[in-house]
């Protein structure tokens, strides 16, 4: 076996272009051609299953989120949910709600009153049995936690 590669070069003057598809050249469909089954047909007819009240999409969970969106930071004209101060909302099967949140800074002027207001507003949501607020400082809040709506409202986008 030789070590030289076996490469052949063929020179041509030109290549004819491939024929183009034309509508006139297409075969006429026969009458009553059955339509292929739509793979999404069954999927689109399905109804969403029942969502537990404490799960995202459930009545209690969505009510809590709406209540949080009505609470505004007094120094920033954006609600605390879109501001990214809410780290988590947990709803137990008994509809007890635990809201994990932070504040923009530990020296925030509303550090004493904001958790109480959140607890009061969440507790007033229909279906909530008990509301508890867990104020955390880790991870610290930063502007990247804000929603796009909040950034737009503050002129950051």
Notable traits:
alpha+beta; GMP Synthetase, Chain A, domain 3; 3-stranded mixed sheet; 3 strands; 11% strand
Largest sheet: 3 strands, mixed
Tell me what the CATH architecture of the domain at 59-153 is: 2-Layer Sandwich
Low-confidence stretches: none
For the record, the CATH class of the domain at 59-153 is Alpha Beta
Gross geometry: elongated
Oligomer: single chain
Largest sheet: spatial strand order: 1-2-3
Helix proportion range = 10-25%
Describe it.
The protein is of the alpha+beta class and 157 residues long. It has four helices and three strands; from the N terminus they run ααββαβα. It has helices spanning 41-45, 59-68, 114-123, 148-153, and strands at 86-91, 96-101, 130-135. The protein has a domain at 59-153: 2-Layer Sandwich (GMP Synthetase, Chain A, domain 3). The longest helix is centred in the middle third of the chain and has 10 residues, at 59-68. Strands 1-2-3 form a three-stranded mixed sheet, with helices on one face. The mean pLDDT is 86.
């Amino acid at each position: 076996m030789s070590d030289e590669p076996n490469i052949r070069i063929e020179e041509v003057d030109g290549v004819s272009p491939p024929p183009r598809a034309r509508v006139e050249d297409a075969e006429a469909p026969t009458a009553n051609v059955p339509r292929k089954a739509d793979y999404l047909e069954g999927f689109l007819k399905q109804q969403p299953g029942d969502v537990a009240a404490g799960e995202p999409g459930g009545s209690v969970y969505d009510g809590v989120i709406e209540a949080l969106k009505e609470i505004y930071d007094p120094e920033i004209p954006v609600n605390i949910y879109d501001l990214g101060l809410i780290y988590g909302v947990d709803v137990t099967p008994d509809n007890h709600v635990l809201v994990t949140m932070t504040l923009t800074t530990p020296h925030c002027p509303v550090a004493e009153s904001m958790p109480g207001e959140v607890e009061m507003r969440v507790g007033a949501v229909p279906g909530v049995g008990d509301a508890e607020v867990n104020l955390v400082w880790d991870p610290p809040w930063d502007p990247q936690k804000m929603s796009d709506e909040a950034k737009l409202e503050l002129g950051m986008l």
